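Exercise (ungraded).
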Amino acid sequence: MEHILGAIGTIIIGFIVSLWLPGLERKLIHARIQQRIGPPISSPGIMAPLKFFFKQTIKPYSPLPRLYNSLPLIGLLSVFFILLFTLPEAYHLGALASIVAIVGFLKIEEVIYVFMGSLSKSVMSLRMPFPDLAKGAKHPNVQRSFLEDISAMRAFRLIAFGSFPLYIALFIPAVISRSIFLGDIVAYQQINGPILFSVAGVIGAIVFFIGYIILLNEYPFVIIKAKADVIEGPYMEYAAKWRALIYIMRGFLMFTLAILFSVLFLGMPPTIFTWGILVNILVAVLFPMLMASFSAFAPIFTFKQFYPVTFGATILGVVALLAAFI
Amino acid sequence: MGTVHSAAIEPYRARLFVEDEIVKDAEITVGVNHRGVERIMEGLPVEKANSLTEKICGICSGVHLWNSVLVAEKGLEIEIPERASYIRIIVAELERIHSHLLYLAHGNEVLGHETFSMRLFYIRETVMELLRMIGGNRVQYGVPIIGGVRPRAELDEMKTQKIREGIDYIREKVKEFADRFTSDPMIMSRITGICPLSRKDALRLAVTGPTLRATGVEFDLRREMECYDPFEFDIITQDDGDVKSNLLVRVFEIFESVKIIRQALDNLPEGAVVDRSWEMQDTDITKSYVEAPRGTLYHSYALEDGRVRNVVIRTPSMANIGAMQHALIGHHITDAQLGIVQCDPCFTCTDRAIEIVKI
């Protein structure tokens, strides 16, 4: 019973903290760097989703509307399960509380953008009926592509190569502790000290951070929702409660990835029964702030810049893995 | 994309024919913003018609008015006081600075660099306030009138001092920005070699203004304008015709504009700012060209009983946008928006063409 209450309490605290993270990112860092007032700190993570919950739900045209509408919930659930399995109360669940399961759930979170993009048919990229549609156009009978289609293709490419740095970073603690189970990784660090303070750990943390930004689709790796071409990308047509769920999912993912870092590199799983949860919260706050500081000074990368950066980060991750073996 | 897109300030439509996200062909269409200003001007008293030209553009409003006034002055053979000519040039160059800063800010926005974009808008605020101080308005300052400038735009000691302080601040801040901008490898990687236009293509497609100079062609109409004779300034050129060259040309042109304003303030002649001794008469169609922030701007009309007839306006963006269709080909779709923006298009300016149907 105590285990269940502990898990529920930790998740509730995590959820509350996660609601503030987008606001901290935008108000304290972005707005400050850009010398503007910025939104109220509660606006991006709390008030905006709250507002969307009370908006009228507009259902866009989609070939599979039920699946399309349930994708934000699937994404949120996958992030929820990642957080659940990082809790010490879940370590006895065996394979579910392992790096492999975490990677699996992260893949679900990544793949939903492909589905979101390919199942949405927006009106945004449709042109107005100009006369040159009928006369004078260079290519009158071409297939129109939707902005979300382009995003879906980009999300697919990101699955193929963009998430390498994060996944390699996840396996560095596993190599050092010689176990893929989170319980063993935490136990190893409680005896030998945090992995972060080793050479492999430091390099791994850098690679993890790059992977963290890529997975959150934040500047400069924001290509699936680059405003310069695809605007909101895969979730352009989500409205009302579905859009609120997307906002909540993003904040929750920020928190969960930071908790994952605490578990893997600091050996500190979140639990409300110890003061260590404050360290978890501190890491969860620091990560978005560092990310915001970096992203505020970066332009959007196209694949021309994306490939070499990802390749470089992957190589760095491989170096960290080799260092971990040694 | 379009006709409305989050990365575009104004409505237009770009059809990009892509294969694996690489642009194979492009069609850029304007026309949704057409208001028929020329038609509205037809038959209006010349003073009213002139003030209407200021509404053509929200960025280079002053230069439209200036050119329209020049048409009347040429037709009526009016010599304006030298002091008025200097004040017009100060306003035109301030407008060029604010237009170029807007371009740089918008370019950074499309590039995804919101921080630079925001900071450039802050720098631009100084120019907007100077224009407000001179003309009483931030967007439509209405400085030139037939025969000189509005008495409201007379520059006293306090105003000239504020302009001096303002341009010093702008020069310092733009220099800081340019240093940061050009030393950032991430930005350079995004803008170098993107959507280039060759010198040959630029001439073939009648590109004008800074976009032409970014391809290496040393042409600036200000060199041929009599009123600019007393001022020393360089014609800024770059060689590559890509996004980087276009951005840099405008950065350096800001420094040249600052130089011109400083010379104008140092040598501001004494005397009246307007000559009202002219008389209205009928004129044939008179043409006038000026160097607007985006390139060569053309206005022409005839006068009949003090009213304008046969108004034609041609703006620089019209030629430049067409050239961008050519520049986008072979580049990534994310760079395409940057490629369109690199010519500093102004669609409210551009949507001028009218179809004359003979019955």
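Further reading is listed at the end of the chapter. For now, observe: Chain A has one domain: 2-122+144-325. The two ends of chain A are 42 Å apart (CA to CA).
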